[in-house]
What does this fold into?
Amino acid sequence: VKIGILGSGIVGLTFSAKLTGLGHDVMLGTRDVTRLLARTDPGAYGLSPFKVWHEEHQAVKVGTFAEAAAHGEILFNVTSGAGSLEALQLAGAANLDGKILIDIANPLDFSQGMPPSLLVSNTDSLGEQIQRAFPKVKVVKTLNTLNAQLMVTPRQLADGDHTAFVSGDDAGAKAQVVDILKNWFGWRDVIDLGDITTARGAEMLLPLWVRLWGVLQTPLFNIKVVK
Ligand SMILES: NC(=O)c1ccc[n+]([C@@H]2O[C@H](COP(=O)([O-])OP(=O)(O)OC[C@H]3O[C@@H](n4cnc5c(N)ncnc54)[C@H](OP(=O)(O)O)[C@@H]3O)[C@@H](O)[C@H]2O)c1
It folds into this structure.
């Protein structure tokens, strides 16, 4: 499948590596291709500089946000939450319309330092802002509640016996995303929260997530919903 990954941070690189490994045709999008390809500063979380990473992952194509969006039949929004709307404007509605956009971004506000707060909450969410700005895009919020590595290898933890959530207005798109979570990444427990307004709940888990991270001293944990 042709995949467009909008975002060049740890989440974008993690999905790009995983999906090319599964044989998909991946293009990663960024604001400035030349700048990204020349980056020799160390990546976040101990990741190699982008230039080195890309030499090791040559199957991953690199383009602008617009080129990556045009390339993908299925798209991932893995841009910084504060910049997501801007990044999607750069991608362009014409390249996004009609496609599934798997939205993993969190609207985190780091302006007051750590821990971050939320830029939008309670009565709105980033998922809804994206859906409103791009009404013809099938936005499905998912996987924003856990660490990048676990998103694509959930079985690494508790044999995958923990929970992912999905929110979105388009039932067909959501079913396809649940299929992707289960068949490409190995998820077992996926809870459909409902329409895109339920992304509020998934995004508002983040204040708890960052505090658990502080206490547990590892990002490799997740929530399991039990009845
Ligand atoms: N890290 C995790 O484990 C994790 C877990 C759950 C959810 N998330 C969410 O996933 C998203 C990606 O996280 P990340 O750590 O991989 O990367 P990040 O550092 O949050 O975001 C990097 C990407 O955002 C783009 N960007 C930043 N500001 C922008 C702006 N003003 N306009 C347009 N684009 C802008 C950057 O563009 P350039 O390529 O041009 O630099 C880059 O592609 C975030 O929303 C984060 O909250 C992360």
In short: The chain has a mean pLDDT of 97. Residues 7-12, 30-32, 36, 44, 78-81, 83, 86-87, 104-106, 108, 144, 147-148 surround NAP (CB under 6 Å). The two ends are 36 Å apart (CA to CA). The first strand starts at residue 2 and ends at 6.
